[in-house]
Amino acid sequence: MKNNSLWIRTVIILVVTLAGIYIVFGPCRTPTTADFTADGIKANLAENINLGLDLRGGSHLVMRVKTDEYLKNLAENTAQAALTAAQDAKLPVSGNTVAGADGNYAISLQLTDAAQSQAVIDEVKKKVDLANWTESNNGDTITWSLPSNIQTVLKNQAVDQAMKIVESRINQFGVKEPTLQRHGAESAGQILLQMPGVDDPERIKDLIGAESKLELMKIVGPPNPSPVQTFPTEDAARQSVGGTLPANRRIITYAERETTAPPAGQTPENKPKQFVVVEYPAVVGGDELRDANAVSRTGNEGDYQISFALKPAGAAKFGDWTSKNIGNYMGVVLNGEVKSAAYIKSRIDDQGEISGQFTKSTADDLALTLRSGALPAEIEYQEERTVGPSLGADSIRSGVTASLAGLILIVAFMLVYYRGSGVNAVIALLLNLLLTLAALIMIDSALTLPGIAGLILGIGMAVDSNVLIFERMREELRAGQDVAKAVVLGFDRAFITIIDTHVTTIISAVILYMYGSGPIRGFAVTLILGLLINLFSAVFVSRTIFMWLLQRNPNLQKLSI
Amino acid sequence: MFEFFTKINVDWMGLRKPLIAVSIVVLLAGLISAVGRQFTDDGTDAFNLGVDFQGGTVVTVKFRQKPATDEIRGALQNVEINEAIIQDSTDKQDEVLIKVPNVGKREECKDPNGEPMQEAGRCIVKKSLDTFGKEAEGANQLQDDETAAYKIVGTDAVGPIAGAQLRNQAVLATLLGLVGILLYIAFRYDWTYAAGAVIAVFHDVLITLAFFSVFQWEISLTVLAALLTLVGFSVNDSIVIFDRIRENLTLHRDKSLYQVTNDSINQTMSRTIVTNGLVFLSVLALVLFGGEVLRGFSLALFVGSITGTYSTIAIASPIAIWWQAKLGAAKVKEVQIASQSGEKMASASRRSVTRRPVTR
Description:
The structure holds two protein chains of two kinds.
Chain A: H1 2-25, H2 38-48, H3 53-56, E1 58-65, H4 67-88, E2 93-99, E3 106-111, H5 117-127, E4 134-137, E5 141-145, H6 148-173, E6 179-183, E7 190-196, H7 201-209, E8 214-219, H8 234-240, E9 249-254, E10 274-279, E11 284-285, E12 289-296, E13 304-310, H9 312-324, E14 329-334, E15 337-343, E16 351-358, H10 360-371, E17 379-387, H11 389-442, H12 449-478, H13 483-515, H14 519-552
Parallel strand pairs in A: 9-15
Antiparallel strand pairs in A: 1-7, 1-17, 2-3, 3-5, 4-5, 6-7, 8-11, 8-14, 9-10, 12-13, 13-16, 14-15
Chain B: H1 16-39, E1 48-49, H2 51-54, E2 56-63, H3 69-78, E3 85-88, E4 95-100, H4 121-129, E5 150-158, H5 160-188, H6 191-214, E6 218-219, H7 221-251, H8 257-267, H9 269-289, H10 295-327, H11 347-355
Parallel strand pairs in B: 1-6
Antiparallel strand pairs in B: 2-4, 2-5, 3-4
Helix pairs in contact in B: 1-6, 1-10, 3-4, 5-6, 5-7, 6-7, 6-10, 7-8, 7-10, 7-11, 8-10, 9-10
């Protein structure tokens, strides 16, 4: 029976160790002989471990979207639109007021004739989208206020929208593997952008803050049902207008998002560029756009359209223009590139649709690009941490040196102080280090410089468990217990203490993880993992080694400790 | 067997008054430093807060020919930056850390839209450094560009709002950490032990902060991480001893709590020395080889690993038994170690022991 349990323990340990070795040193493909050479192992290790920005070099930017400003602008625009709507209908309004203090966003219209208030409400609602606002009417003043739950929703939308814009802009910039996520409490409206390998964030910050330009332009060419007139080269496009470009024409690239799967061997990225000729200036600029959404009448995939809404001034202009251009192609141009071309089915006023066989995701993307013409509110940089590649490499070197020095000191001490049993502790310690790295890779968490410090401290804690157990065993031996009994008592008694010490340290590490940011989280993660794994390596593995020792020599009189 | 401290018999509880006096002296020194600095003319702040907590920009610059600190200071003054802190990197000869407060918008620093940048810290430092020669710009390193005189290898910029936010989070995290530990120990032992351990840990944090104030070491986010680690480590020591007290109380019901506490500290002394010695060794490795970035972190742990051990003996245990004695309506007598007069033990700990027996 006892023999049996020893076998099971040994098998578990072997399996876990081998898995750990493979995760840390193995390649993510079928191994070849090259993977067993020193260089191969080093290369695999470098590939497996995800280094944090402070070690590999890169930029860490925390930005805040000024959501209060966004709501304030929204309230001001809505108030202006409401006043205009009522005045256009020749209704008796005398003015509007906007309140935006202390998070109470409200707009009011002052009436000179209270009897007409219902007429004003009806008229305003026809022209202005007030679905989110709570209405109250006391005769000569009509007030619409924004409930706080709606404010939260709108603020979140603004942050998400800003995030999408930031994403599209950094993708344009060609940043490799950026990560973009919400940061901190939801109400803080913060975005965290991490860009490995970028050591001059000023250019990125410029790009993110740059004004984006969206325009609706007429594409020159035969009307529907002919397809959009495109050209393979800029030159070909120029030839089509007689070799020289007239003042009212522009040639721009055409990068329509795929509505159907690209031909074999081509991805949307490497699809050859196309060019179109457009009329200049644009019919409508992006500042005229009020909203855009993906809609579907049938709900079938591939049957999505973009509905958009223009502000009043743009709507009038656009209505005129579209009625004269039915059947022609209109290009949606973002930052000087046609993102989508669609033919005009009918006159479009302030509400319109861009037809085309969009899938839901392309339609959503397009609607988003449309909406994302400009950032919803100004972005403020709160934190910027940049580490150049040379500084990162220096940090790796000092981190690794410190770890190795710490490790060597500990190993040397354990071997001298506990002799035979020290070997046991060292095995547990190295296993702890290996498995912590493996766990870090498994959960895809980045190793930061504080993370390396966490590893070293984890080793310190791991040794503490062994010391507790060994000291206890020594005490039991001094008290006259035989070796087998001393081993059992040592582990049993020390185990309770080990659990308590681990739980308290994990509590503080978890809190650090919750409130820490960036590299500090890396520290908390490695410390937590190291502690959890230690329960396996220092207690289970060490005990198995002692069991195995006693199994081989049941009458062991003297333990090397 | 090769071991330290097998047969020590020190009356730790009897030493508690001088030990606590030492703590009070260090804490007072910290308090005097923290308060005094704010009231002396051209004195510094209570703590040398890094940009993480007070906002500002730190630029790490690698020079080909490092100029003298005064030259850099002069260059910065030319662009109207008078409060810069210029610090040589402790482990790299050619690197300098330049720390400037938040400068806000500056006319000479504009973004491509022609608007002044929101925070011109990095830009203005770069402008001042350009007087020493040009920077190796873009992806170029210093060795790639023969004509360049320096390279900005790292920047940390924290806005004023984020600084305040990080500061609040730091305090909150430390307090929550203490509360979490208090609750856990109260659940596993009882309130008297929990109070002892938490007061001891709080003491450790304060002592460490006292060192940071006296020596004006910079407090950054990583120092916060170190403080919380310290909290975990210090509590470990307390738990090991409490655990032994609990066990000894059931084994030796005839001994006084005073005596049992002393015995428990002495019995676990070997472990205390070995473990903390080892933690100390790994922290020493961090101090020596961890580099500039981990400096504050290593120093905090360095101080913490010493005070953590000490506070368990000098603070945590006396408080726990003082409170228990009060609960048991019995006075902790200043008895001789030799006298083993059985005094009725504190009820609180008795209850918890019988509820959760340790011996199996």
